[in-house]
DNA sequence: ATTTGTGCGGATCGATTCGCTCCGCACAAT
DNA sequence: ATTGTGCGGAGCGAATCGATCCGCACAAAT
């Protein structure tokens, strides 16, 4: 996707450019989440399938990239919280919020807090988000849907705890793209279990198919060639 | 604890030696779990409060150390599973097993599978463990304590998912030893939530005190000096 | 046809960090 | 005194880091 060999028209060219924008940004999120303070710009470029130069064209450096990711993360938190409040059902709103945040990977950037000079200034967006989040919890409590002894902080930590998936990360690293969906589905079930643990109501059926043992054993298997042939 | 300045007797000296053994081993577990494939021997030595030389006296290198950790992990898995089966209450046995494994950090070594030449040969210990584990799940299912739609693999992945605690790891890195117990307690609550989600029974009260918001915000705070004065 | 402009991949830089070796020191036993 | 043991860390060559820079491919402008 980085090569621009077959582009013929101006519009197509521009599309490729913005596609690279997105590829770099998403790759950066994945790599920062996976490697934490050991994340490298080269790894980000490779994950994006892009040369290092193309990355430095858009971002002045590692810090710049990281700050952009933080902003994006704040926005997602705010939007998801407000979307949750818009749901007429307090519990469905909360449950959807948790699933969204886990799959987004909220909190996976936090461990880098003290590595980068990133002022977590309480800007307007994050304040809006925090009150929306608090309202959401309170509403679920008041409706009797959320068990009374769990707090907002519990839920923050729960999201953070499920936001990373070591299995998913390793499979991606191994190039086992065939198993990614299974792994995602498997985590989705665990989220559902946790939500039932939060819910003040009888459990709902777990989503998707039960994960196979092969999913767990995949990482110990002999590596199936790092990537496809060039 | 590495300096041996004040030892006076032979027994005390030996005690310090074996204490270093343990310190290195446990530090290695923490660092491998925290840094994954980026773990370095220097980091392990520092975490253990020990010189690099002392580490290389005991282990021929990184691989050797890692294999020793794998063995230890297998033993824990087997012993915990058998301990669980020894519990007359199927559910209590399973729940205790999960808590034990999460706090031990089972599965945190798996992401290193393809970095090190580590043959995960199905030795006798791990086979014993696997059958014990399967029996444990089956017993809980049969007793009606474990909700019928969760599988053994679900539980393996759940343990793996909760085995790492980004918060705990970062607080340790920041030297905030004052918050470690709070963070552990907070994760313990999340495990309890998940267990209630697994349990085919009304929820039990969450353990410990609710976590404070300060716990989450700690990592963004201005760093309180990396370590104590020398 | 030629020039210009843009986005790109990656070789390459000096600096840093890697796994690991080696050596001198402190202390107890001989 | 001598020996033996465990230790901390300076320092080795190799590898990797963040960042720079340059030549190429291609479309638009001339």
Protein topology:
The structure is a homodimer of 230-residue chains.
Chain A: H1 10-35, H2 41-48, H3 52-58, H4 62-86, H5 90-104, H6 124-142, H7 152-163, H8 166-174, H9 180-198, H10 213-217
Helix pairs in contact in A: 1-2, 4-5, 4-6, 5-6, 5-7, 5-9
The first copy, chain A, binds a DNA duplex (30 and 30 nucleotides) through helix 1, helix 2 and helix 3.
Structural class computed from helices and strand pairing of chain A: mainly alpha
Query: What is the average per-residue confidence, as pLDDT of chain A, rounded to a whole number?
Result: 89
Q: Point out poorly predicted stretches of chain A.
A: 1-7, 224-230
* Residue share in β-strands of chain A: under 5%
The value of Rg of chain A in angstroms is 20 Å
Order of helices and strands of chain A: HHHHHHHHHH
Can you tell me about this structure?
The structure is a homodimer of 230-residue chains. Chain A is an all-alpha fold. Chain A has helices spanning 10-35, 41-48, 52-58, 62-86, 90-104, 124-142, 152-163, 166-174, 180-198, 213-217. Chain A is globular, with a radius of gyration of 20 Å. Chain A binds a DNA duplex (30 and 30 nucleotides) through residues 2-5, 7-10, 13, 16-17, 20, 40-42, 45, 50-54, 56-57, 61-62.
């Amino acid at each position: 996707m980085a090569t621009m060999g077959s582009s013929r028209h101006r519009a197509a060219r521009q599309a490729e450019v913005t596609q690279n924008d997105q590829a770099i940004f998403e790759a950066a999120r994945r790599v920062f989440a996976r490697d934490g303070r050991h994340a490298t710009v080269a790894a980000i470029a490779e994950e994006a399938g892009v040369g290092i130069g193309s990355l430095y064209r858009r971002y002045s450096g590692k810090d710049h990239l990281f700050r952009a990711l933080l902003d994006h993360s704040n926005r997602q938190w705010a939007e998801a919280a407000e979307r949750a409040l818009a749901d007429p059902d307090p519990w469905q709103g909360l449950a959807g919020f948790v699933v969204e945040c886990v799959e987004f990977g909220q909190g996976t950037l936090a461990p880098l807090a003290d590595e980068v000079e990133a002022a977590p200034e309480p800007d307007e967006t994050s304040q809006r988000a925090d009150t929306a989040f608090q309202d959401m919890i309170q509403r679920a409590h008041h409706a009797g849907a959320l068990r009374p002894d769990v707090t907002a902080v519990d839920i923050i930590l729960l999201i953070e705890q499920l936001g990373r998936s070591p299995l998913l990360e390793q499979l991606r690293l191994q190039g086992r793209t065939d198993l990614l969906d299974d792994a995602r589905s498997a985590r989705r079930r665990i989220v559902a279990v946790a939500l039932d643990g939060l819910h003040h109501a009888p459990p709902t059926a777990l989503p998707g198919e039960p994960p196979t043992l092969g999913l767990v054993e995949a990482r110990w298997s002999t590596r199936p060639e790092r990537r496809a042939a060039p």
